[in-house]
Amino acid sequence: MAPEAVVHVVDDDLAVRQSLSFLLASEGLPVRLHESATAFLESAVNGNAGCIVTDVRMPGLDGIAFLQELKRRGSTLPVIVMTGHADVPLAIAAMKAGAVDFLEKPFDDDVFLAAVRTALDRNAEEARRAAEANVLNERLAALSERERQVLDGLVDGKPNKVIAYELGISPRTVEIYRANVMAKMQATSLSQLVRMVLVGEGAGEKRAI
Fold it and tell me: Which of 53, 60, 79, 120 lies 20 to 30 Å from 29, alpha-carbon distance?
């Protein structure tokens, strides 16, 4: 069962926390309140489902340092920063540090909710892609060494005869390995097979960064 998406509100102003909590709850969105970035980091938030809404200016750990720490910890929660008009340059710096959006106070309720829903949709899509990549990488790992060699040749666009020559086997044997690869990867066409490899390996490269 997928974890529930939660909107985490991080703000040192109690009135702001309560106001946003009421607004989010009225839209049926689960919400958790945190009085500071440090409080959030110490709350042992489980999983990466949901998003974070945080003030950019807070005592202690400010919004920029908060974003940097989230990145260091490998969090994939999208972050929306809230800022006063005079702090727009700081909000832009937050965007460069990884925030997905920023809102100038005071902001309209509908604008706020739209930003939150966009962040939640983005988070859900990234989770879906990560899950798909994990499945594909498991299938890739199940291939034998020779099957993987044939697959690499196919992904490079090489004909069966060329793959056979390079591997020192017959074209008929390549066809057998190719059929095995298609079955193990659960691919119905060569184009789908290539996409699967690109999705799986592409996600692996992103995780390695």
Answer: 60
Q: Can you give the pTM of this predicted structure?
A: 0.73
Question: Would you state the structure tokens that stand for residue 143, as one six-digit string?
Answer: 């291939």
Instruction: Retrieve residue 136's tokens.
Output: 């594909």
Q: Where are the domains of the chain?
A: 6-131, 142-208
Query: Which amino acid would we find at residue 86?
Result: A
Determine the Cα–Cα distance for residues 14 and 180; give it in Å rounded to an integer: 61
Query: Contact, 48 vs 1, CB < 8 A?
Result: no
Measured distance CA(95)–CA(75) in Å, rounded: 16
CATH, domain range 142-208 = 1.10.10.10
State the CATH architecture for 6-131: 3-Layer(aba) Sandwich (3.40)
**Where residue 74 falls among pLDDT bands split at 50, 70, 90?**
confident
DSSP string, 117-185: HHHHHHHHHHHHHHHHHHHHHHHHHTS-HHHHHHHHHHHTT--HHHHHHHHTS-HHHHHHHHHHHHHHH
The residue type of 135 is V
Per-residue pLDDT for 209 more than 60? Answer: no
